[in-house]
Amino acid sequence: MKTTNEAPLMRLEQVTKTFPNGTIALRGVDLSIERGKVHGLLGANGAGKSTLIKILSGSISATGGQIFWKNKPVHWTSPKEVKAMGGVSGCRERLAAFRFVAPETGRVVRSGWLLARR
To answer: For the domain 10-90, what is the CATH code?
Structure first.
C-alpha cells in the first residue's frame, strides 16, 4: 500500500521525443509509475506508445524532459544500463493477421488480428 511519503518508482516530467527528420513522437509526457500497481499504456496508432517504451527501456533517448527512477534523475544510454538498475525491459509485440479455415468445408469461418509476443 502506498503511503503519502512514498515516491513513485518511476516518474516522467514533460518527456519529449523529436526525431532528426522533425517528426514529433512525444510531446510533454507526464507519468507516475507506482510500486505494486498495474499500469496500462493505450493509444491510437502513431500515438507514441512504442517510442515511450523504447525511451523507458534505454533503446533510444528522450530529447527533452526528465525521467526519475526511485526519485533520482536518470539519463539511460542503453538497455543494459536500465536492466542493471532494475528498470523497464522492452517488450516486443506484433500483430499478425489470421484466418481460420474449417477443414470440413475449406471456408474461412473466422479472421482477425492476433497479438503475438516474440
So the answer is: 3.40.50.300
